[in-house]
Amino acid sequence: MISSDPSKRNSFERCISDGDLVIVYERHDSMKAVQVKIGSEFQNRYGAFKHADWIGKPFGSKVFSSKGGFVHLLFPTPELWTLSLNHRTQILYLADISFVISYLEIVPGCVVLESGTGSGSLTTSLGRAVAPSGHVYTFDFHEQRASLAREDFDRNGLGSLITVSVRDIQGEGFPDEFCGAVDSIFLDLPQPWLAVPSAARILKQDGILCSFSPCIEQVQRSCDSLRQNLLM
């Protein structure tokens, strides 16, 4: 489980227990998130690995299969989670995630809103950044995608820090309950300019908005909306 206490580093001295989430490192381009369960096995081309043999070993351990193959058992940091999660959508990777969190000035205790959730790559890092006293509210219009993301956050121990809701932010805007109470907002939407008026209404006076768009036309229209709604 990802640590939700920023004062504590992930320690290799902590041993793996039944029920833990582990990142199984096969090679630099192949990692899998596995829930440890007594009686289960992890199988790959290197052989079969019994979960029971993992229990009691420190995170970072190198373990061997019956065939002599090996994998490493790593602690599920947000960085490793990004590299191992199931891609339900295009995701942000570490360089962009670091940039976003830095420029949104997210620190422990912040209230952060995100739309859309997608595969939850950025959301996982946002959850760690606001811990232990902040909260992330993330929205996606796709019900199944939101449900799967919610399950992932519960698996990696961030369920108490992240609330997932199904909502079309482009069409409906953010809920009025957040009016004037939000430190930072991140938008990753096809038409982010449609969400800017709502974002402007719910941000604190010194709040920060970041919109991530791959096309210059999206950027231009978003900038126009930002000038109309935030630069007054």
UniProtKB/TrEMBL annotation:
GO terms for biological process: tRNA methylation. It holds the Pfam family GCD14. Keywords: Methyltransferase, Nucleus, S-adenosyl-L-methionine, Transferase, tRNA processing. Its EC number is 2.1.1.220. It is found in: Nucleus. Residues 69-228 form the tRNA (adenine(58)-N(1))-methyltransferase catalytic subunit TRM61 C-terminal domain. GO terms for cellular component: nucleus; tRNA (m1A) methyltransferase complex. Gene3D superfamilies: 3.10.330.20, Vaccinia Virus protein VP39. It is an enzyme of class 2 (transferase). S-adenosyl-L-methionine binds at residues 119-122, 140, 168, 188. This is tRNA (adenine(58)-N(1))-methyltransferase. It comes from the Eukaryota. GO terms for molecular function: tRNA (adenine(58)-N1)-methyltransferase activity. The keyword DNA damage does not apply. The lineage of its organism: Eukaryota, Viridiplantae, Streptophyta, Embryophyta, Tracheophyta.
